[in-house]
Amino acid sequence: MEELARLAGITVRTLRFYRERKLIPPPRREGRIAWYDDQHLARLRTITALLERGHTLSGIAELAEAFDHGRDVGDLLGVGGPTEEEPVHLTPEELADHFAGEATPDNLAAAMELGYLGTDGGEIVHVSRRLLDVSSALVHEGIPLAEVLAAAQQVRIHADALAELFTTLVLRHASPEDLPRLRPLARSVVEAELSLALDRRMRKP
């Protein structure tokens, strides 16, 4: 414990307090010896960084609990991972910075349920850099993250329906091997139709 506290730049008393608040996981025990590892040190450094950014210990505890019960990155990405989207590895403090203090356990749970977030050792993984950037931008524009995620759930339903429509159309006239080659056509149609739909919506009184 003394060695861990020294490496983390905190006192043993502070470390004990963090343990009591369950901000760090318990050590591995061998008899009367408690062993800490690099993940404990990374968590302590994360706590220090979040405190320096103005987060409260209560908020950090909630974030740590959600993080500890997150989905594994293997479940998130699946075999092979996304074919076009770029996953992003984040520390908990980087995730908190992206969402301006709205990285609450409820919002993290919603993002995990959508398949946006998973965990990989001491890091969080977001499945798509584009989705991360867009959702972060919306939050910084003043839209609550909970509402962004609720909208994403509705978008997911419509996107699944569009994907089903496109694959059904192609498979009526081509083979499954043609789907990857024709995939950009589906994306172009959706982007153009959404652009036209936004034009129509903005022209409404």
TrEMBL record:
Q: Does the keyword DNA-binding apply?
A: yes
* Domain HTH merR-type, residue spans: 1-66
> What Pfam families does UniProt report for this protein, alphabetically?
MerR_1 (PF13411)
Question: Does the keyword field hold Cytoplasm?
Answer: no
Signal sequence interval, chain numbering: none
Any idea which UniProt keywords this protein has?
A: DNA-binding
Q: Which GO terms describe its molecular function?
A: DNA binding; DNA-binding transcription factor activity
- What name has this protein been given in UniProt? MerR family transcriptional regulator
Organism per entry: Streptomyces cahuitamycinicus
